[in-house]
Write a structure and sequence with these properties.
Blueprint lengths: L8 H15 L5 H21 L2 H18 L9 H19 L26 H6 L1 H12 L3 H12 L4 H8 L3 H23 L4
């Protein structure tokens, strides 16, 4: 997976056209935007807050925000990155209001000298595809702090690049790589302890 937030010309053209249609209040345009990005929005918000009622409410708030501020979308990057950024911002604000930390106390870059190795051998997609492992993996991901859960989801499941995630979260690319490395290490340890075998 490339680390640069490169969207194809076709993608950007389609994104700009959809944004323009919503701004022009064309019938069905906003519904199309919601249908296209509701899964992404749910992923981002749910990984942050882990409460279905709050997630539903915050997703509605996200799309209201998107509707109100779509004129700010410049079409220079993929619309999905911009939507994910709004969803992340709404969920982060919610956690801050509830005084829930989004990362663990020592979740900074110190002590993570190997953290730039994003491809560290843990294949999250394959683990998610295995039914039995799926339940263990979800439980293990739930044990991670909100930020780490969200970064794993954006990178592995929503397939955003490191560059796109940096735009979504306003975190430095090195910090994102550090969190991804640390999160996968924690997931491996949690899964090994639950399954009793190396993953």
């Amino acid at each position: 997976m490339p680390d640069e937030p490169i969207a194809s010309k076709e993608t950007l053209d389609a994104d700009r056209a959809l944004a323009r249609a919503v701004l022009d209040r064309r019938p069905g345009a906003f519904d199309q935007l919601v249908r296209q990005y509701q899964k992404l929005c749910w992923h981002v918000v749910d990984r942050m807050v882990r409460h279905p009622d709050d997630t539903r409410e915050l997703c509605q708030e996200t799309f209201l925000r998107i509707y109100q501020s779509l004129h700010q979308y410049r079409g220079e990057s993929a619309l999905k990155s911009w939507v994910a950024q709004v969803a992340y911002s709404v969920a982060k604000r919610h956690l801050e209001r509830k005084r829930i930390p989004i990362t663990d106390i020592d979740g900074h870059e110190h002590g993570l000298s190997l953290a730039d190795r994003v491809g560290d051998g843990f294949d999250l997609e394959t683990a998610m595809a295995d039914r039995e492992m799926h339940g263990y993996l979800h439980a293990a991901m739930d044990a991670l702090p909100p930020l780490q859960r969200t970064l794993l989801t954006l990178y592995h499941l929503d397939e955003l690049t490191i560059g796109e995630i940096a735009k979504v979260t306003s975190l430095a690319e090195g910090t994102i790589k550090s969190h991804l490395f640390r999160s996968r290490k924690q997931l491996r340890e949690l899964l090994e302890s639950r399954l009793g075998v190396p993953t």
